[in-house]
Amino acid sequence: FSYPNLTAKQYAWLVQDLGSVNRTRTPWVIVNGHRPLYCSCDSDCLGAATTNRMGNMINGTFKYGLEQLFFSHGVDLYIAGHEHDYERMYDVSPHHN
Which helix (H) or strand (E) holds 30? Predict the structure, then answer.
């Protein structure tokens, strides 16, 4: 998140890409990312997971968060790496955090 201009462009691309999915032709939407949206293994991943999930704080509000975007576009599965741990959880949505 050190490149705000790139973040905005990538986020706009992702919004457009997820919005163009034809669920009849593509019934499952699976997203792969480098860092997880949730992490409970240690403090090393907590900040990055929160930033991925909520976005960057810009002028007192979060922008470019992935959690709400994935939820609103019906992403079925998000697979992430980076952390060398295995975690899984029940359904997650912004309404239950």
Answer: strand 30-33
Report phi then psi at 77, rounded to 5: -150, 135
Cα-to-chain-centroid distance, residue 64: 9
State how far the Cα of 25 lies from the Cα of 41, in Å rounded to an integer: 37
CA distance linking residue 72 with residue 18, whole number of Å? 10
Quote the CA–CA distance of 35 and 37 in Å, as a whole number: 7
**Which DSSP string corresponds to 40-65?**
-S-HHHHHHHHHHHHEEEETTEEEE-
Could you read off the pLDDT tens digit of each residue along the chain, which spans 97 residues?
Answer: 567 788 889 999 999 999 999 999 999 999 998 888 887 777 767 778 888 888 888 889 888 999 999 999 999 998 888 777 666 666 666 665 5
> pTM for the full model?
0.79
